[in-house]
Amino acid sequence: LTEACLKAIEGAGALNAFVHKTPEIAMEQAKAADARQSAEAPSLNGIPLGIKDLFCVKGVPSQAASAILDGFKPEYESTVTANLFGAGAVMLGKLNMDEFAMGSSNETSCYGNAVNPWKVDDRQLTPGGSSGGSAAAVAADLCLGATGTDTGGSIRQPAAFTGTVGIKPTYGRCSRWGVIAYASSLDQAGPMTKTVRDSAIMLQAMASHDVKDSTSVDLPVPDFEAMLTGDIRGKTIGIPKEYRLEGLSEEIDAVWTRGKEMLAEAGAKIVDISLPHTKYALPAYYVIAPAEASSNLARYDGVRYGHRAKLSAGDGIVEMYEKTRAEGFGHEVQRRIMVGTYVLSAGFYDAYYNRARKVRTLIKRDFEQAFAAGVDAILTPATPSSAFELGAMKDADPVQMYLQDVFTVTLNMAGLPGVSVPAGLDAQGLPLGLQLIGRPFQEGDLLNTAYALE
Ligand code: GLN
């Protein structure tokens, strides 16, 4: 299996999904997997996976697709990858992504964009972002599953664009130790796979309580796969009216209606609900996420990691910082740092950052009220469009790209789990996804509902 994946990766260079291949490590892990007695084999024994470049893997380049981390090889292993390898998984290499996970098209990567294996005529399409390499690799069968991370939609949007399944677990379910930080109060790791069942198996291996991450939650990890019965009789599914955006395409609306019908046929009760603060989620996210990013990215100063600019005679430490950061960070990352420092600055803190935090509480309360009223899961579209052409947003206002996250950021703000499941094709023949949002730490139930939609 590992050899077949390595061969497929060699033949798929045009997708630019893998940015660093680790065939030696893969073959060593695969041999070790073969040697394990089947009776005692762990859950992912010999299963070849791709790892998003945001995860630190000991001794393997881990750059978050940024030039500023050029040559960085971590001395330590992220808890999630340690858990996966502990479960017998095989690492094929590191996967492409948007720089520091900032983006929705994989075009901010220092390695150039990954390409969606789905095509319309000869147009090259984005696999989505930021976990675009993960989505492209899974969709093109280069690996059996991949890790992703999701701060505002980076697992679910690329899953929707490539016809794959991706779940962002509840904040705290997977350890963030060793995952290069973007916005620490929003970041979560999760699996990207071909099927809901594969996601259940992979999430089970990834999740754990970890004393090295103070926000990781000390709760048992249930057997998610065993919970996939497909029985959702008596469950209540909420349809939030605020997600019916003006100008929502008829095709997406149709897919949404079909999703409702499928769940109703499976015995669920469909109810209309209201999440009144939804429209403030995107602007509040684009205050909070850059604020946290500007703080997290302060550590890349040319001293401790990766790239350092060449200096001229007379340059001091300030010039060293400035030149290194100007060369090492791409434009989108620089924009986020500037927005983040602005909203945190003394004169604007209350008007922006504090205001956004209050909005965040209101968004969380909307969901809590829906769940308290008996809703078990919420069904929405995953994205406002299918995969768009690479380069299409090059000259657009950056907010156009941010609008990709309109359905996904709400639950990062509330810390809730969300899954994107393939839900059919649009008129161009491109995949569309539906999103299900669940109660905190009820990923098993959520995956089971997604299973009924699959
Ligand atoms: N597109 C969003 C952003 O750029 C989400 C990214 C993510 O989830 N990592 O911030």
TrEMBL record:
InterPro entries reported in the protein's UniProt record: Amidase (IPR000120), Amidase_CS (IPR020556), Amidase_dom (IPR023631), AS_sf (IPR036928), GatA (IPR004412)
Keyword Nucleotide-binding: yes
Gene Ontology biological process terms, A to Z: translation
GO cellular component, one term: glutamyl-tRNA(Gln) amidotransferase complex
Chain coiled-coil ranges: none
Keyword field: ATP-binding, Ligase, Nucleotide-binding, Protein biosynthesis, Transferase
Gene expressing this chain: gatA
The name this protein goes by in its record: Glutamyl-tRNA(Gln) amidotransferase subunit A
Catalyzed reaction equations: L-glutamyl-tRNA(Gln) + L-glutamine + ATP + H2O = L-glutaminyl-tRNA(Gln) + L-glutamate + ADP + phosphate + H(+)
